[in-house]
Amino acid sequence: MSTTTTTPSAPGSDVPASADAPRPATPLRSRRRRTDPIYHLFLFPALILFSLAITLPAVLGFLYSFTNSIGFGDWEVIGLRNYIAMFRDQGILGSYAFTLGFSLVTVIVVNVLAFTLAVGLTSKIRFTAVLRTIYVIPMVISGIVIAFVFQYLFANTVPSMGQAVGSDALSTSILANPDWAWLSIVIVTAWQTIPGTMLIYIAGLVTIPTEVYEAGSIDGASAWQNLRHITLPLVSGFIVINTILSFKNYLNAYDIIVGLTDGGPGVATRSVAMSIFRGFEGGDYAYQMANAMIFFLISIAIAVLQLRVTKGRTAFGS
């Protein structure tokens, strides 16, 4: 005996509705009304905390940037004087030049080395798991601790080794050289951030089907041709994401610079973040708030660029 399932016909209709007939689409407005109000209730605590911790200080800082406040006491509204003075301040402009140059060089160094290591660690070599574990160790160490360790190496160990081998270039500390101190910051930053970038590249490389490389080998492709025509195009999305995220993070560099050079010699390695913080200590509260607003707009521009470039990209960069 068979059982037939029927559905009631629509009101006012003589034709019975079939179980297989497509149901009319629910209007978008009706579906939104079905959202349980309890979900909105859960949003309020986070919204309040975010507003108090992020939005309100940012709005107050923006308002103070148009005053002559030193952080306490009386203050007056002075309009755009802080912004105009900032663009004439060679110290501020120097910090922007250093930060942008340091970020650009570090992005290139970190991504090239991280991609090279990722390709090596996804190839058919022995002890891959052990090597991956060793390479990610710098990720779990604090940046300020790493900076102090390398500060000792650059100030003592490397000059001693340079004197032992008779090298004039290595006999003095690179940290005391205003022309080359930035290189030490690039080295330490790369040492700490390469593991995280490498893991993202590994996640991209393992998604490439092996059949693609097998087809390439059948056609006689060399290792360089496989890298150029298969690997790089298929992980282009990961390259774009890593490049933009790294650049945005390096713009906010602070702890490694403080522990390594403290912005010196002089102000040769002073970043924008350090200039803002030192300004607060020196009573330039409103002036540095104007600096922070400009820096905030630059960060927003990079974030928007990231969203536009990475929009719709998947693991295979399409």
TrEMBL record:
Ranges of residues in domain ABC transmembrane type-1: 96-306
Gene source species: Brachybacterium fresconis
SUPFAM superfamilies: MetI-like
Region (Disordered): 1-29
Subcellular location: Cell membrane
Name of the protein: Raffinose/stachyose/melibiose transport system permease protein
InterPro entries: ABC_transporter_permease, MetI-like, MetI-like_sf
PROSITE patterns for this protein: ABC_TM1
Keywords from the UniProt entry: Cell membrane, Membrane, Transmembrane, Transmembrane helix, Transport
One Pfam family linked to the record: BPD_transp_1
Family: Belongs to the binding-protein-dependent transport system permease family.
